[in-house]
Amino acid sequence: TVFRRPVHSRPRTQATSISSFWFRPQRERASMKKRSRRQPTTVWRVAVVGAGSQGGDMAREQFHVLPRTTISWVIDSCPVAARSLASDCEAQSASILTPEVLAMCDIVYIATPPRSHREFVLQALAAGKHVLLEKPLAAESTDADAIVAAAEEAA
User: Fold this and answer.
1) Cβ atoms 97, 74 nearer than 8 A
2) Pairing of strands 130-133, 69-75
3) 100 to 75, 96, 97, 117, 127: CA distances (angstroms)
4) pTM for the structure as a whole
5) DSSP code string of the chain
6) Fewer CB near the last or first residue (10 Å), C or N of the chain?
């Protein structure tokens, strides 16, 4: 009979994270287990830019229900739409993205028409925030190039 190793298994000469775990002293293994069981405590504050259908759906169905995110601001050029979504998500509303708003959030989610993406992305990246941007990246290739350059510089 010929023994064939399953395709998914690794050769025995390669160390894996599991095997290296078991070769550690018992006390060290116990502390590693405790560290891995800790629950993350970071709550990400999100500013939603664009209270239309796409921004509203993402805010209500994703950010609002996730335990580690909270919507802190809703920004839209239409104050009525911003207030409506903000009241649904227990957030504050504004009609423009200001430095004060950016100071009170960690993530900026942009769900506006593509022609306005460049302005909002550059503002958020300049403030050192994480940016989630709906597609398409931009309406013009020059805007897309500027967004990519700003993201690479911020990274």
Assistant:
1) no
2) unpaired
3) 12, 11, 8, 20, 10
4) 0.74
5) ------TTSPPTTS--HHHHHHTS-HHHHHHHHHHHHPPP---EEEEEE--SHHHHHHIIIIITTSTTEEEEEEE-SSHHHHHHHHHHHT-EEESS--HHHHHT-SEEEE-S-GGGHHHHHHHHHHTT-EEEEPSSS-SSHHHHHHHHHHHHHH-
6) N
Closest CA to 124 of 148, 99, 92, 93: 99
Q: Using CA atoms, how far apart are residues 110 and 117, in angstroms rounded to an integer?
A: 7
Q: Which tokens is 114 given?
A: 């593509």
Q: Distance (Å, rounded) from C-alpha 69 to C-alpha 63?
A: 6
Measured distance CA(19)–CA(105) in Å, rounded: 41
Question: How do residues 10-41 score in pLDDT, each as one tens digit?
Answer: 555 544 455 554 555 565 555 555 555 556 67
Residue 84, both tokens: 């409506």
Amino acid at 58: M
Distances (CA, A) of 111 to 2, 57, 87: 59, 10, 18
Q: What mean pLDDT do residues 42-54 have?
A: 95
Q: What are phi and psi of 131, to 5 degrees?
A: -125, 130
